Amino acid sequence: MKDDQASSTAYTVLQGILFSASKPDYQPLIPAEMQQACRKILSASAEGKKRLSQLDSRLYRSFAPVMENAMMPGITLHYVLRKRYIRDAVEAAIEEGFTQIVNLGAGFDTLAWELHQQHAGVNFIELDHPATNAQKAKALFELSPDNLHLLAVDFSETDAKGALEGFSGFDPERRTFYICEGVLMYLDQPDVERLFSGLKQLTGSGTRFVFTCVVPMTSPDNNCGWLLKLYLKIKGEPLNWMIEQKELPQFLQQQSYQLHDLAGTEQLKQRYLKDINHGVLHQGEFLVLSSAND
Ligand SMILES: C[S@@+](CC[C@H](N)C(=O)[O-])C[C@H]1O[C@@H](n2cnc3c(N)ncnc32)[C@H](O)[C@@H]1O
Is position 1 within any domain? Predict the structure, then answer.
């Protein structure tokens, strides 16, 4: 990642969501406020404006699905489904009494922005690389809400625990729910393990954590296409931590966390696509809801 540029993958996620939102079948999955926030973020930079104009281009709209099939079939709809899953988990936690939501590597995710006004008593914090954070602040934060904070962190220099401990906007006494969506695969295994233990040390047992995991490229549960595999081979494997779905329960146990729910492609389909006409679904990333043991 370039230090002075916002994350390209953060732009890609928003573009994928808006691409899905332009299909009538998927509209019900994507709240209007979320679409507005995605547009607002993209409108605030040259790169974002380029992504928006691509969405209006007939050539791009016919070419994008071909590229998606060759690289990561079903990924644009998958972004929508994983965000739905996380939104449901966060809303359930707030209902249960959690009063602090911390998103690690939030990128341009819009959930905290959408929820902070509805839940004035809940403290929202988003951590990301300084350049991505600065771009998001420019796009959304004309005012600085009391209960929504952006914290600039480079995880290659400071881990989440170190960053949050020294941040005045973070309150270790609150029941805290952490999100780590589309990020763990960029970390090394020791950093992933340090993250789990760090969150537990910060806010104690009962700390809740929802995160996404990528399965190895060679797994039968991964439908990534030949072009992505070729790209990764040429690039020398930029993804670091990957784990098979069946290995996750044991991994969590080793971190002293309890598994509450695990959702792969089939579970997401059952939960969110029952009456929806959809194309090929992405396989290769699953979601986990967990909490720290005593
Ligand atoms: C694939 S994006 C996911 C963004 C968001 N969580 C989502 O799913 O919409 C990965 C995010 O991780 C962040 N990230 C990657 N490496 C990082 C680092 N070393 N320090 C801080 N953030 C980093 C990027 O800036 C980017 O926003």
Answer: no
Position 142 in a domain: yes
Alpha-carbon distance of 203 to 161, in angstroms, equals 10
- Check: CB of residue 121 under 8 Å from CB of residue 142: no
Residues 6+ apart with CB under 8 A from 224: 71, 72, 73, 217, 284
Q: Strands 148-152, 123-128: parallel, antiparallel or unpaired by DSSP?
A: parallel
Query: Which H or E run includes 288?
Result: strand 285-292
pLDDT at 209 over 80: yes
Range of the domain at 117: 8-292
Pocket test for ligand 1, best of 183, 184, 212, 213 (most atoms within 8 A of CB): 183
CATH number at residue 231: 3.40.50.150
Strand partners, 289: 210, 261
Residue 211, ligand 1, Cβ within 6 A? no
With a 6 A CB cut-off, is 68 part of the ligand 1 pocket?
Answer: no
Q: What is the pLDDT of residues 87-140, one digit of tens each?
A: 999 999 999 999 999 999 999 999 999 999 999 999 999 999 999 999 999 999
Pick the closest to residue 286 from 225, 222, 237, 239 (CA basis).
Answer: 222
Q: Which residues pair with 287 in a beta bridge?
A: 212, 263
The response to whether residue 1 sits with its C-beta less than 6 Å from ligand 1 reads yes
Q: Is residue 2 part of a domain?
A: no
Number of compact structural domains in the chain: 1
